[in-house]
Amino acid sequence: MGAFMASWYEICLRLSFFSLIHIIQLMNRAFQGVSPGTPDSLEAWSTFGGSQIAVIADPAPVSSALPNTLQVTVPSSAAAFTGFTNDGYWGMKIERGKAYKASFYAKLNSTSVGPIKVSLVSSTGTTLASASVPALTTSWKQYTLSLVPSIATSNSNNTFSISFGSSQAKGKAVNFAMFSLFPPTFKGR
Q: Which of 7, 69, 100, 128 has the lowest tally of Cβ within 10 angstroms?
């Protein structure tokens, strides 16, 4: 009976792990277990519109347990619409009409960058859902948003995106930490 229970326990653990991967939508969401400043530290993350990203060892992190942050710099010469994306684990299945809970920590390194837009974007560039954060602060703060797609997608080649659309962002840097994007859960738990 003991060997049976051990096998059963191992099977349950493996199934739980694979279920968790399907729930957690964003890959490399906390930048832990990576060396800051290396290409590997940016796995699953990319930029658009001229913005620049780097994982740094933050001198004043959101928590001592989360010493690395994603620093996003918007050059003065950047396009009017700039930002960064996460491709998730082999894409993200996004379903129309379901609420996805997004959250992240952010802090400004200087003055205001204007509002930022958090979106779910299809492989064709169509915005499936979006919400705005009107202003960031110079202290770490957690932002939580609900994203409800109004469009159905035919595949899982979708991304999580944060964009800066204001000329106020040019020449500024923002630090981000601990991103999360969760699909609806069983009975909202």
A: 7
Per-residue pLDDT of the chain (189 residues; tens, 9 = 90+): 455 444 444 544 444 444 444 457 899 999 998 999 999 999 999 999 999 999 999 999 999 999 999 999 998 888 788 999 999 988 898 999 999 999 999 999 888 888 999 999 999 999 999 999 998 999 999 999 999 999 988 899 999 999 998 788 888 999 999 999 998 876 666
Sequence length of the chain is: 189
